[in-house]
Amino acid sequence: MPIVGSLIKSLIDLRDTIVSEPEAKEAQQEVLTKLLKKAKDTQFGKHYDFESILKADDIQKAFAEKVPYFDYNKLNEEWWHKLHDGEGDVTWPGRPPYFAVSSGTTGKSSKRIPVTDEMLESIRKAGIKQVSALSNFDLPPDFFEKEIMMLGSSTDLEKEGDHEEGEISGISASNIPFWFRGYYKPGEEISKIEEWDERVQRIAENAKNWDIGALSGIPSWLELMMKKVIEYNNLDNIHDIWPNLQVYASGGVAFEPYEKSFNALLARPITVIDTYLASEGFLAVQARPDTNAMKLILDNGIYFEFVPFKAEYINQDGSIVDDAPVISLDEVEEEKDYVLLISTVSGAWRYLIGDTIKFTDVKRKEIRITGRTKFFLNVVGSQLSVNKMNDAVQELEEKFDIKIPEFTLAAVRIDGEFHHHWYLGTEGETSEEELKEALDESLKNANKNYKVARSKALKGVKVTKIHPDIFPEWSAANKKKGGQVKMEKVMDEEKFAKWEKFVSEKNA
């Protein structure tokens, strides 16, 4: 009998009976108050007069009225650049020991987001909440004795003056508690390897030595890793080498588009648990098995606000207009899309993280990521969000029994008229014409704005099939492989022209 696993499972169950969930509104009010008190003497806090906000009868309302919205570019140009110039007490007391480097999916160059000691503690607490939530899933005691493969970016961080830089997954992994290191794979030595292909090769070579019970990471890169392990060890599926694999913790992107191709690498189904760890913080975890939604973490140094996701509130670059209305957590409605704003213990204030979400259960405060503000395709009034795109692509997978793990598209002009040109990553034999017609019809049925646009300014749809491997190769050529890198779902015409040239050269 797995005694250690039974003990760990019992401790997790006991903790859940002792630790009660905070009341949402009170928890968020307390978080905001603590944030404002902590930062009131910073340059940012003095500029926006946090002292007076703290004295207001309604602190949340006063905060929203006094402090404007910020995306990364605005916050960096006005405030965070001072940190890079050596200043302290800018938007948070002191100077951050880390910067999370994120090329993201939207920016032209890397973002450098401060990560404070308080944020590391917030991430640690969120990780404990994630582990605690496993008690709600039907997992046997021996699962808690197995090793966990955390496939993130390199933990070999760059030293820059008085701080270190790397992707958030690498920063988090480099701060893993000592008691967890025995469970953590691929281990410190392999995790420090910068080059993705070399790191994955070493994982494949050592895979037979590990008893992996859980995987964690971005689905597209985990798929490539599993394929390499299967190929190198001459296996039929990943369970041939890791028979006790039972859990996959996804993160940062919707898992559904990858589900079919991911499951094809398994011998049997495993439990998929969604998490929401961004460069700016650990925001939500899936707390129960009867849903694919995640519960916002409301008492952990992050204050949430929500802007209704409507075309008139979104600028072409994905930012939000200055006078866009904002609502608090106790005002949100189910199944409506919102732009997510956060204020954090790393000194981000009313910060546009770039994601859109919807509440699937307001009472439980459970959400799903529905897309990116930058990937909102509205060039000719089609108002096409990423979740609608994902749903349509999933319908294609089901209709034609094919796998389409990746796609991208753009609104392009052909003979002066707009068309949507889709590139679908698939090895299926369905013709491009069949895919085009089914895709167009699916979007018309799901989105009335798209249907109207197709009868007017959006004159046509084009589909091009390519090998799925071209997508990670594009990421490698433009950013890098692995880590937190995600594929752009929507491109502007300039980037799309470069994409088409890249694909053409690959197919030549």
Automatic annotation (TrEMBL):
Record-level Gene Ontology MF annotations: acid-amino acid ligase activity
Domain of life: Bacteria
Pfam families: GH3, GH3_C, GH3_M
GH3 middle domain boundaries: 296-364
GO cellular component, one term: cytoplasm
Stored PANTHER family: GH3 DOMAIN-CONTAINING PROTEIN
Organism whose genome encodes this protein: Salegentibacter mishustinae
Protein name as annotated: GH3 auxin-responsive promoter
